[in-house]
Write a structure and sequence with these properties.
By secondary structure, the protein is mainly alpha-helical. It is 60% helix and 3% strand. Strands 1-4 form a two-stranded antiparallel sheet. Strands 2-3 form a two-stranded antiparallel sheet. The protein starts with a helix and ends in a 21-residue tail after the last helix.
Length: 521
């Protein structure tokens, strides 16, 4: 080495490795973390492939799906709330015994002697209520943006089932405090099961394990709440997330999807005919090809017609999801500090709550129960609504307005008109039945006030709704929007009526005159 080389080596300092750098070079580290920090496009892709927690995400996502005004983060908030409830519920299991003699005392102990016990119970209680609301709003978001259409029909049905099981999951946990509020709310709700066709009162006995709410009911609801229903929800969520990936991610307008035609959205219609091996390997249509395990070769969406309107999930999607989870956590902590979960007196079968109300998310069913047959209001109408929601994607097939809120400005006007019309009609009907009453006008035979008149009224209201939107000359999508908006409005109006305006004897009462315990939050 000459003198110049020696001087140059002294001028250029050697690179120093920190302890973290040395740790990252070890075989142990590389076996656990197969990709480096996602600072390059390659590592951003590899971190999604190699991470157990992130592999459910695609490597890249459409920019449209990152807009807050499009998704509102409702899907990730729903999943996060389920995770949060699993954590808080798991901790509460160490502090709770499912016994009619011990359950109420455990609730009192959480409030008085367990460090942060009240906060823990508040997070679980308000988180459960929030999950019921967010899952329903997520379902509404998907419908209003056309996210249920081809090829997402099956995933839409899974979403409807997730909504139903979310209600059941919250309902099964309602009895566990075993106070007056939960005892009579479960009593009212399970009484509806006695009107199940064919089974009758056997359905109610199956739920309660007896003819009344007691130890068998508490034990069954506990098993449903901590094991069976969460297991079903986890399975449905897993398939739901998988279908989101397989169906091309979140829905987006055709202008933002490759190809620009309805056929290009559905991979079942995008493949070119494959007659021989050469056609399979080199399709004549200038489109992207992909293979799965070197066994399946098909054509992907066209990529030459516009710029790639996608971004890497890391960090864009990760940051959005993190913000959604942090915002949800802060909101729940704030609510939990302001309001404690209710705990009434010890459950006493001899002291009837008045009013005895179902849980708030079933207040709409209890409200319509006041106006028609229990079998019609508690069994047939809910089942009919669920079937109708699942069937919508198979009747409304338009692709042009996928990914657009309310399909168009005309669709938005139709939704507003449907909501106003439904609200006014419901208020008038509730007031009429309260102060005049169908049964006072037609009392016999019982089938008339219980079945025929309610069904005829619902049919007439739907006919008026359909006739009222004809001024806009609606297409199939806009007709579906009108009726779905009527359903959503009915759900909220009857929930508000049943929860905030039903007092002693379930008569209409101003919310400020409700008796103590008039709300079932």
């Amino acid at each position: 080495m000459n003198i110049d080389d020696n001087i140059e080596s002294k001028r250029s300092p050697q690179k120093r490795f920190s302890l973290l750098d040395r740790l990252q070079e070890t075989v142990l580290w590389r076996s656990l973390f197969r990709s480096g920090y996602p600072s390059t496009d390659e590592n951003r892709a590899m971190v999604m492939f190699n991470s157990f927690f992130l592999h459910i995400h695609p490597v890249k996502v459409k920019k449209n799906s990152l807009r807050i005004s499009y998704t509102w983060g409702l899907g990730v908030i729903s999943a996060y709330l389920f995770f949060l409830l699993t954590i808080t519920g798991g901790i509460l299991m160490f502090l709770y015994v499912p016994s009619v003699d011990q359950a109420y005392q455990d609730m009192q102990a959480l409030e008085t002697s367990v460090p942060f016990g009240m906060m823990l119970r508040n997070l679980h209680r308000w988180g459960a209520h929030l999950m019921v609301l967010v899952v329903f709003l997520h379902m509404c978001r998907v419908f209003y943006t056309g996210g249920y259409k081809t090829p997402r029909e099956a995933n839409w049905m899974l979403g409807v089932l997730l909504w139903v099981f979310t209600l059941l999951l919250s309902f099964s946990g309602y009895l566990l405090p075993y106070d007056q509020l939960s005892y009579w709310a479960i009593t009212v709700a399970t009484n509806i099961a006695a009107y199940t066709p064919i089974l009758g009162d056997k359905a109610r006995v199956f739920l309660l394990g007896s003819y009344d709410v007691g130890q068998p009911a508490l034990q069954r609801f506990y098993a449903l709440h901590i094991f069976l229903l969460p297991l079903v929800v986890i399975g449905l969520m897993g398939v739901h997330f998988w279908r989101v990936r397989k169906d091309g991610g979140l829905s987006a307008p055709l202008s933002e999807t490759s190809g620009g035609s309805p056929e290009s959205v559905d991979p079942r219609h995008s493949a070119s005919p494959q007659t021989d091996e050469q056609t399979q390997l080199f399709p004549k249509i200038p489109s992207r090809t992909y293979g799965l395990m070197a066994l399946v070769k098909r054509t992907g969406p066209m990529v030459e017609k516009g710029p790639d309107d996608t971004v890497f999930s890391w960090p864009h999607l990760m940051v959005m999801e993190l913000l959604a989870m942090l915002s949800t956590t802060i909101f729940l902590l704030f609510v939990s500090l302001l309001a404690n979960a209710p705990l009434r007196g010890w459950a006493d079968p001899d002291i009837t709550e008045n009013p005895a109300k179902a849980p708030w998310y079933f207040s709409n069913l209890q409200e319509i129960l006041l106006h028609m047959s229990p079998a019609l209001s508690g069994i047939w109408i809910p089942v009919g609504v669920i079937i109708a929601l699942m069937a919508v994607p198979y009747f409304e097939r338009r692709q042009e307005d996928v990914g657009i809120w309310f399909a168009s400005s005309k669709g938005r006007e139709i939704c507003v008109w449907s909501s106003v019309y439904t609200t006014i009609a419901l208020i008038v009907l509730v007031l009429f039945d309260e102060y005049i009453g169908v049964r006072s006008l037609v009392s016999s035979p019982a089938i008339f006030p219980e079945w025929i008149i309610p069904l005829g009224t619902m049919g007439a209201l739907m006919a008026i709704l359909y006739a009222g939107i004809q001024r806009w000359q609606p297409n199939g999508r806009e007709i579906a929007l009108a009726f779905f908006t009527a359903f959503v409005t009915t759900y909220f109006v009857l929930t508000i009526s049943g929860q905030f305006f039903r007092g002693i004897g379930l008569h209409l009462t101003p919310v400020w005159n409700l008796p103590p315990g008039g709300l079932t939050f």
